[in-house]
Amino acid sequence: MSSLEKIFPDEEPVAKPECTNLSGLKKETVSFQIAYYGNVNSKEYVHLEIDSDIKDWIRVRTVELVPSALPCNAVYDDNYLRTTPGMFPDLLRDLKNNQVPVIAHQWRALWIDITIPEDADPGNYKMSFIMQEDSVGEILDTKTTKIKVIDAMLPEQRLIHTEWFHADCLADYYHLRPWSDEYWSMLENFIQEYGSRGMNAILTPVLTPPLDTAVGGERTTIQLAVIEKNGDGYNFDFSRLKTWIDICYRYGIRYFEVAHLFTQWGATSAPKVMAWEDGKPVKIFGWETKSDSLEYSSFLKQFLTALTEQFRKWGIVDQVYFHTSDEPSEEHLEAYQAARQEIDPYIKGFKTLDALSDYSFYERGLVEKPVPGTNHIEPFLKAEVPGLWTYYCTAQSTEVSNRFMSMPSARNRILGVQLYKFGIEGFLQWGFNFYNSQYSLEHINPYAVTDAGSAFPSGDAFLVYPGEEKKPEESLRLMNLFHAMQDIRAMELLESMIGKDEVIKEMEKDLSEEITFKRYPTSDVWLLGFRERINDRIETCVRRAQ
Predict the structure, then answer these.
(1) Per-residue pLDDT reduced to its tens digit, 29-88
(2) Per residue in 393-446, pLDDT tens?
(3) Strands 58-68 and 107-115
């Protein structure tokens, strides 16, 4: 089965041989699945053996079911797999001792990743997956397939990609004190995972991010800046921020989003700010602090002056983005404008970035990098906004691509085709690991609650699960999103050989209409077939050049 299938326990999957042709470029991860049925009366285990010359490239995981109380919003379209609560395939878990669980009268799946080394020889490689009673027992079944390695290297990712990283949620789940040695060790595990799957920009909590927080409420303090208050003046220590940046650099993360300087949905208040005063940690700003207060204005002047000086010293001015306030609408325009005017004098030379879908904010020069929702991007495309970003979240539940558990995986992966066609510079989504209920009223266990307390469709709030040994466990949604990022890189490689116009011609060949963010092929057969055509044309170009 292809990586785009979702194997439900109560539904026999349909084999699609045309979706199981495997090929890949060097430095690429190619994935597929093996579905199997439990024709047993109680849970059993079988042993898996792999017979292949490329065994060391292969990783095998089970696809585990997780509960969804809210699989979709009240308004949805016909491109969903299921819209009723239930168990959904999502969590990917490494096998232990090559033991495969067989569940009575249920369909289950193995997820297979093949990561092709950059020094791999081109050609076809055979793989056999052997199910047997135990490590030396009777062979129950064997599945054999092959993969073609193309003699070309997947180029480095150019798209800037951020899935908001919620550092406080990790402290809460693992019950760790932020910035303790044990916390930093755990955090590095998650940052390593983040960078390895195509995220190269990261929400950086210089101050505790004022995101998805109830008015008057608080999230766990996760402030990188150490602040000391002396009367009306402040001293700043950014050594923890430097440690954060150094860790991110180790794993390929090159862009840093300074968390929002004003509250969400209106910029009415200051975020929570903690400082040392008379030897004690105290909250000096928060919901009770109006965004235009003289005290907060004085703080911002001193804070941003010191912060930007550090960024210049570290040589990363072009890699830093400042957030003002998240998701303002037309009614918040004046407040947002006032907030921007408040910080503008101190962030000159830096880019600003905010998720907003009202074109008038950009038109008035209030944000350098507007990030409209994929369902509101047309005016920005029509205006040819340079270096355009886009995002989706829970609201983008009809027509456009998204990653809800209840959606087909093709609806997740098609995003790569769309981002490439329209030359999108950056993609943003709000939840790499949001493990709170809506408005952060309570912490949740994401293995049991996948919808932020029945607030957002399952799959919207996080891509990874907080696993044992303080390491993340991936989801099949993350892997399909990663494949979308790889698709972009493959298309960019082909573009370097034949030009972008030819790539788009190949993309839209035999389609009845041009691809947009709302109109696109929904078939997994088309999507995988298109990627195969990209690979074939790359291979042809390489051979001609030899």
Answers:
(1) 999 999 999 999 999 999 999 999 999 999 999 999 999 999 999 999 999 999 999 999
(2) 999 999 999 999 999 999 999 999 999 999 999 999 999 999 999 999 999 999
(3) antiparallel
Q: Which one, of 98, 63, 60, 182, lies nearest residue 469 by Cα?
A: 182
Identify the pLDDT of residue 297.
98
* Cα–Cα distance list, 72 to 77, 458, 541 (Å): 10, 7, 44
Q: Given the DSSP bridges, would you call strands 44-52 and 99-102 parallel, antiparallel or unpaired? A: antiparallel
- 21 CB-contact burial (10 Å; exposed 0-12 / middle 13-18 / buried 19+): middle
Four-residue CA torsion sign, 33, 39, 40, 46: negative
Which pLDDT belongs to residue 533? 97
**CB neighbours (10 Å) of residue 39?**
8
| Residue 43, C-beta contacts closer than 8 angstroms, at least 6 positions apart | 101, 102, 103, 104
16 confidence band (pLDDT: 50, 70, 90): confident
Cα–Cα distance list, 105 to 39, 44, 92, 143, 307 (Å): 6, 12, 21, 21, 59
Element (H, E) at 373: none
User: Are 178 and 138 within 8 A, CB to CB?
Assistant: no
- Determine whether 536 is exposed, middle or buried from the number of CB atoms within 10 Å of its CB (0-12, 13-18, 19+): middle
* pTM confidence score: 0.97
171 C-beta neighbours (distance < 10 Å), count? 20
Whether the CA torsion 359, 360, 365, 367 is positive or negative: it is negative
Rounded to an integer, the average pLDDT of 368-387 is 96
What backbone phi and psi angles, to 5 degrees, belong to 477?
-65, -40
Token readout for 358 is: 């009202």
CA angle, 256 then 370 then 460, to 5°: 70
